[in-house]
Amino acid sequence: MRVPRNLEVWKMGTVSYLDALKLQEKLVSDRKANKISDTLLSLQHLPTYTLGKRRTDHNLLIPESALKYIGAELHYTQRGGDITFHGPRQAILYPIISLRDIGLGARNYVEKLELTMIRLASLYGVKANAGQKGETGVWVREKKIGAIGVRISSGITSHGLAFNIDPNLEYFKHIVPCGIADKEVTSLRREVDLVLPDDEVIHEQLISCFVRLFGFSNVISKENPPILLDDAKRE
Predict the structure, then answer these.
(1) How many CB atoms lie within 10 A of CB 106?
(2) pTM to 2 decimals?
(3) What is the largest CA-CA distance in the chain?
(4) Which residues of the chain form beta strands (DSSP E)?
(5) Catalytic residue set
(6) CA atoms within 13 A on the CB side of 177
(7) Torsion (CA) 154, 158, 159, 162 in degrees, nearest 10
């Protein structure tokens, strides 16, 4: 008999990157101690550049002092991957889940995150695919539509994926996205001719793709959950 698998989905609106980072750290600690079930954070950020643990600062193409003039922040993290951008109109999922409980290794986990975004794109007739060797994330032809950067500690995941609905792509011109030169970035808006539904609908579709691919059978959704850091920013 298949054991039901539970997932709490926190729909958080817009949250500052630093607040989301601190929240993930707390949830990872709680998940390791089995104080909480698997949890999925669904949100978006204000304009933010993030660097992974390899600290590839050279892929930021403008001085850090100039970021304030374009309304962006820079944060260093312990996730894998290279530099990337997060901003409004980008759908972000941060899974805090136990890979040991679901019997997944790191590679299969990343592949399922990629497939989550590929499935979402296919709902709009967009043919997306995983990158070539050394190219993480999801691509439409030679253009990147979805980024992945994860951290796994004692079998518990954090960070996750970011899918471009219709962010301001000008921000990507100030970095070498994910450290891959000579590659462009695209968005769902740029790849379709039809009128897209509200971003909230696309966020919900992304969550549904994740839930199905990871085999969760019991999903509890929380709108703007109160269990946030005191200074968390959300809409």
Answers:
(1) 13
(2) 0.90
(3) 58
(4) 6-14, 39-44, 48-51, 73-76, 84-86, 90-96, 129-130, 138-140, 143-153, 156-164, 184-185, 218-223
(5) 178
(6) 26
(7) 120
